[in-house]
Amino acid sequence: MSETTRFLSASECDFRESESGHLRLTVQKEFSCLDVVFRRLFPLKDPGHFVSVGDGGKEVGIIRDLTEFDRDTQALIRLELDFYYAVPEITDIKKIKGEYDYFHWDTVTDRGPRSFYVKGRTEGLKIKGSHLQVTDIENCRYELPDVGALSESSRRILEAVM
Amino acid sequence: MKSRSSGNKMDKSFRLGKRGGTSPKAEDNANKSFLKIDLPDSVVALVEKDLGGVEKLKIAMASDMLPGGDFGEQWLLVADERIAVAGHVDGHVELIHSLEFGEKDKLLVKPGISTAVVDLQQESGRHRILRISNALQKDYSEATRLINDWIKKKEWNPEIFDARRHACSNCGRPLSKGMKICPLCVDKRKMIRKVLSFLAPYRLLVMQLFLLMIVTTLVGLVNPYIGKILIDDVIRPLKNMHWLPFLAGAMILIYAAQTGLQMFNAMVSSKLGTHAIYDIRATMFNRLQELSLSFYSKHEAGGLITRVNQDTGQLQKLLVDFIPYGISSIFMTVGILVILFYMSAFLTLFVLVPVVVSVIFIYRVFPRFRIYWQRYFEKRSRLASFVNDVITGIRVVKAFAQEDAELTRFNEQNKEYRDSAYEAEIKWAKTMPVIQMLTMVGTPIVWFVGGRLIFKGEITLGTVIAYTGYLTMLFRPVFILTRLAQDIPNTLAAAGRVFEIIDAEPEIADASDAIAMPEMEGNIEFRNVTFGYDMNKPVLEDVSFKIDANEMVGLVGHSGAGKSTIINLVCRLFDVDEGEVLVDGVDVRKIRYEDLRKHIGIVMQETFLLNGTIAENIAYARPEATVEKIIDAAKVANAHEFIISKPDGYDTEVKQGGANLSVGEKQRISIARAVICDPTILILDEATGSVDLKTEKEIQDALARLIKERTTIAIAHRLTTLKKADRLFVVDKGELKEMGTHEELVKKKGIYSKLVKLQTDLSQIRGVA
Asked: A117 touching B, CB under 8 A?
């Protein structure tokens, strides 16, 4: 399809942690780069596929499907991705209270309880279908993958502001 | 918890720390103060044991995440030559990392989408120190700068710590970008006083309004009492029939007077409110013009536009509606209650019950309503914006045969709009009758209790009828006051945003010892200049160069290298962080701003023309310019020919920033705009960036005429456009890497020669294509 996009296959890539703690990618007989970075091309729609591999601000290739790689490599890549994309998922909403311009959210996330402030009623909210993304006034992001999966009380609290 | 204020330099260090989104465990501490860190005793004990004591600590900061990504606390501790992290392990606090650092080591904050990691880069490898959420990223970036300075130079300058964390200094609540005042902590009375201070020039109108309100209230209270006289003294005893025409006439007169007074009232309050808001808006816009670009880089344009339009609109509501209606409602409520208590204190106590219930009901139910209506308005504007997009881009829709897809999208949004409208209407339909019922329930109570009192002979029938009249009148002011009480927080928030601009001080202002410089030769010098829009990320580092008067210098380099920043500093749109920018040997910060700007002309790639005629745009900076000068400027800029070919010539209206002109035409008008200023220093920022070759040639010719006998700094990606430059400066990653003529730099075979080769190859490819 594309002559310029380089897709990296599991058979040609060797990802391993270097002694210096960086992640090194070696593509057999071609190149080897230290401290590679990963970016998802579709972080919301398809986080497991199409992962760009970069070196010093330049893309060296794209991984089409992470599951092509062996478990250890997958774990290494996912660990790096997790550091970049880590976004707490809201599992329960205890309270949303409007205070002037701010809305104070008191929530429970998959990473522990968290309270934060959102500017305006809907300014920090992005909804697509039943997926809700909340960005607080300090640029911390939270996800609610399925609003419908929330408890009845959480849903009622959310509906009162949305 | 111990207060850690012992060491001499400790205070600053200990002010780094916790705030932002919080876990409940940390919330008590955070609410007390987000900025000051109180180390738990267990951590203090560790510091005493393993890091040589608290007095050795340079920095102590709390994190808000654990290494695995869960929310929790760890502590970054920097002492002398050691970086350590303390955290909970099996219920105890222990040192998780304790690393000695060397001169070449560096602490880095690596940002992610919502969290960031702090790494220590050492020769031996990279060590992940800890993890934080974005809420703490700015603090940590600043702190790492401080720590890296300490590691590298062994210099400890806590004063360079630019504590720009965005939290309210009073309550610690985080503030959104660009805000300085926490709306919850704002002094409400002071804020109202500030708004009211804008009424000061209209004292006479204010007094008129007060007087009118008192008279209107008193007049409004008379008619039910006339009704009482009519029943008790004429109809019931069937006597004094000759009073009837007088009483009926008095009633008509009072209604007429009331109507007249209300009209007059509305006129005075409208005049007062609109005039005061005109002043507020003018003061605000004036301040926006005075504020430095750094203010604009911290505030989003959309937010500022909202403040000028919507927030002042909210204040207008306060001045035109809230204050007059609020005050008249207070007068009316007090007046009616006085009369009710005067007529029957016993009966009044009964009828107050439904009034109080109504107030509570309205107070609780209406905020929910607001959400339904806001949702409805949001859906409506979303749909409007969708329709606008599709109709504006209908050619694209049709070209790609996407009519059906757009129809499906429209139907989805239309359905959401319909549902939100239906929901709001249904809620309204369910609530309003309840409020009406509550307002009506007082009347049967009056008849029930009042009727019994009539039987006992304690009050008259006329009193009860007058009572019902006053009761009906009472609900309106009570309703208004309840709604006003609900709207006050929004209005105060809007006032806060407006006064944040009005009270802001321009960062770039004339120094007290600024000198006048009516004449300028145009010598420019950068002396060890370091500058960054964000203190953590210098865009220019230790840059030094000299440009002689009348010299033309071309700035060359990749995007983001720092070329435009050099220009911004010459124009003093920002002030340097370190070093000096000198014009004719004087620091630009010491030159009167007006004089500096008067001698600098700019032609930018993104030409922005303002609404007005072409002539007005050319004479933008010199409105007093004669027609001859305008024509001369247009000719120098090669603009005259295309201007006269337009039906309206120089009177052609420029619409929407120049949407009715081509890129080349706009560019030439902006050159004419610079010509008419006759600047000593000329800045050309990609002046021929996005035009075709023919137009570029015309613009080049215009520029060649323009740069004669002026100091010129030009930025261009197309290196051929800089061939006339006396010297070229190659900027790379914030540093001045090469300097010389085209030939010298090509021979040098450095960055410039690579760029030239790259562009030659590209033009050959284009030539082949």
From this structure: yes
Predicted local confidence at residue B352, as pLDDT: 82
Alpha-carbon gap, residue B377 to B55, rounded angstroms: 59
Q: What is the pLDDT of residues B530-579, one digit of tens each?
A: 888 765 567 888 889 999 988 999 998 887 788 888 988 988 888 888 88
Q: What is the 3-state secondary structure (H, E, C) of B362-423?
A: HHHHHHHHHHHHHHHHHHHHHHHHHHHHHHHCHHHHHHCCCHHHHHHHHHHHHHHHHHHHHH
Give alpha helix (H) positions in B291-344. Answer: 293-298, 301-306, 312-317, 323-343
B199: Cα within 13 Å, side-chain hemisphere: 25
Are B183 and A99 inside 8 Å of each other by CB? yes
Q: Are residues B496 and B523 in the same domain?
A: no
Split at pLDDT 50, 70, 90, the class of B768 is very low
CB contact under 8 A, A20 and B22: no
**B657-694 CB burial, b ≥16 within 10 A, e <16:** ebeebebbbbbbbbbbbbbbbebbbbbbbbbbbebeee
Residues B128 and B204 in one domain: no
Name which of B115, B119, B314, B372 to mutate to probe chain A: the one with the most chain A Cβ atoms within 10 A of its Cβ.
B115
Residue labelled with tokens 């109080």:
B356
Contacting residues of B for A83, CB less than 8 Å apart? 110, 112, 115, 117, 131
Interface test with B, best of A81, A140, A162 (most B CBs within 10 A): A140
Q: What is the pLDDT of residue B689?
A: 59
Say if residues B351 and B446 touch (Cβ distance below 8 Å).
yes
**Amino acid identity, residue B666?**
K
Interface of A with B in 11-70 (CB under 8 A): 18-22, 43
pLDDT over 60 at B200, yes or no: yes
CA distance B42 to B86: 10
Structure-block tokens of residue B700: 């080049």
- The yes-or-no verdict on residue B303 having pLDDT over 60 is yes
CATH number at residue B40: 2.30.29.30
Q: Do B106 and B210 belong together in one domain? A: no
**Is any Cβ of chain B less than 8 angstroms from the Cβ of A87?**
yes
| B70:A19 CB<8 A | no
Q: For B595-636, how does the pLDDT look when each residue is reduced to its tens digit (9 = 90+)?
A: 888 888 888 777 778 888 899 999 888 888 888 889 988 888
Q: Are residues B469 and B540 in the same domain?
A: no
Nearest by CB to B176, which of A20, A121, A137? A137
Query: Which residues 133-152 of B are in CB contact (within 8 Å) with A?
Result: 133-135, 137
CB-CB under 8 Å, A18 with B110: no
pTM of the model: 0.65
| Contact flag B20-A138 (C-beta cutoff 8 Å) | yes
B20:A160 CB<8 A = no
- By C-alpha distance, the chain A residue nearest B379 is A162
Between these two residues, B709 and B133, which has the higher pLDDT value? B133
**Which structural domain, as residue segments, surrounds residue B733?**
519-599+716-763
Q: CATH number, domain at B345?
A: 1.20.1560.10
Q: What is the DSSP letter of B609?
A: P
Q: Is residue B443 within 8 Å of B468, Cβ to Cβ?
A: yes
pLDDT per position as a tens digit, B474-486: 888 888 887 777 7
pLDDT score at B410: 93
Averaged pLDDT, B503-523:
80
Tell me what pLDDT residue B181 has. Answer: 64
B382 touches chain A (CB under 8 A): no
